[in-house]
Design goal:
The complex is a heterodimer of chains A (378) and B (145).
Chain A (H helix, E strand, L loop, with lengths): L3 E12 L6 H16 L8 E5 L7 H8 L7 E4 L5 H14 L5 E9 L12 H5 L5 H15 L4 H15 L13 H6 L2 E3 L2 E2 L8 E10 L9 E9 L13 E3 L7 H13 L8 E3 L5 H10 L8 H7 L15 H5 L3 H17 L12 E8 L3 E8 L1
Parallel strand pairs in A: 2-3, 2-4, 10-11
Antiparallel strand pairs in A: 1-7, 4-7, 5-6, 8-12, 11-12
Chain B lengths: L12 E3 L9 E8 L5 E2 L14 E5 L3 E10 L12 E10 L2 E9 L12 E9 L6 E8 L6
Parallel strand pairs in B: 7-9
Antiparallel strand pairs in B: 1-2, 2-3, 2-4, 5-6, 5-8, 6-7, 8-9
The chains are: A alpha/beta (378), B mainly beta (145).
Chain lengths: 378, 145
Amino acid sequence: MTAVAVAGVGIHPFGRHGELTATAMGAAALRDAMAEASVGRGGFQAAFCATAYGGVAAGHRVLGALGLTGVPIVDVEAGCASGGAALALAAGAIRAGQYDTVLVVGIEKMPKGVIRSSFFPQWMEEGGLAATPAYFALRAQRLLREQDVTVDDLAAVVVKNRAHGVHNPDAMFTSAVTAEQVLGSRVVSPPLHLWMLCSPNEGAAAVVLRRADLAGPGAVRLDAAALRSHLPGSVLDESTPLSGVEDQRITPPTQLAATDAYEAAGLGPGDVDVVECQDTDAARELISWVELGLCPPGGQSAVLASGGASIGGTLPINPSGGLLSKGEPLGASALGQVVELVRQLRGQAGARQVDGARVGLAHTIGRGANASVALLTT
Amino acid sequence: MTDPAPPLSDGLFRAGPGAADDGTITLVGGRSASGGRLHFPRSPVCPWTGADDVEDADLPRTGRLWAWTTVTAAPPGYSGPVPYGFGVVEFDDADGVLRVVGRLTVADAAALRFGEPMVVVAVELPTERGPVTTWAFAPDGTDRP
């Protein structure tokens, strides 16, 4: 099958941008990605736009703002993994020989605070059962109980990611924090404190994918872009059901997607040099390490204590600062991870560069459940 | 005595099994004859297997606390009191365990422990369409309305 390369990337900083529209942010990110790829009107055959809250024809508005409509434009919603889903569709179309060059853009402009979602029926909202951060907290409590993780470890994840984010001008938060500050922030839902939760915000990211044989030597390759949903039965997975069964033998969606991605790329967890993974909350990052095969259950504390997941460590995780630094514009976040990894693999990450990185893994997991895992190589 | 508020949604639970005034209710789930497993709330199709041979099945009266936290700010669409407890209770069934999500009558997370016996009770909540009755998990023997 045809190999796929990343011909260009672009990002609009994640944060709060006043009156600036998601369309304008998407157009800015897409213009940068297209400039890197030397692609203009007529140079691509399709576009996928990832957004969860962007409304009808969001992608048409972004491409329309740049005078680029005429090709098929498809909006993609897959919760937190929307960008990963758009990437998977675009890459699949190139691999299948349908297109040579495809634009992928993710946009979002989220309200502040806890996100209202059409996912829950009205009666669940009325009953106080649509309490998103509380579900995160229940998952965190089980992690602490089952995998020898402590609340101090959760704080250490925040300290690590915020330290990385200091060097990322596209992040929302660019100041370092201490464990004492994290543990001193308000308890939202025990064991989770406010600073252990990412902030829904605004931003955009774009990626131009191209047939590898047309992308020129040295281009970063997208060797896998996998998307999976949940298997039924796990009460605390991101599908947020009201009941579940014993789930020890139910493979979580992240593990399903990772297995697909490793197999497609002919790689394993031991080949990965740098990771961008879902840190919706600090516990989610530590759960993801295990589900991605990067750490044995119960091994997270030792990795954090040794600095192994920090830049300069054995396997840096979230060198961009993660969602805890960048915030989470749902449609843009997965593509923002790809932008980060492409820059890491090109050696363009500046003060947050992971030396010698050749294989990068991007992971998102969220409502649906949807999980995406992409593997990028150079 | 006033009539109880209507249920949050139809088919989630019924009165009893305790005395009429002790607030206990029974959660009504479904059981697939072929799969044999309980689920909640009752679905036309077994969510675990996809089988469509589902019949009503009462959940046990008591379970064990498996996970819990506190909701400190009103989530979207909710106009009841905060803070409130929120958690998962395990119910034993012939073919295994069913874990069910619900609010708790205890908001203070430090006052609860893993495996604590819990019973299902009715609580009334305000909503924009008027008061409704929903289910909640209460420590067995305490906090019974």
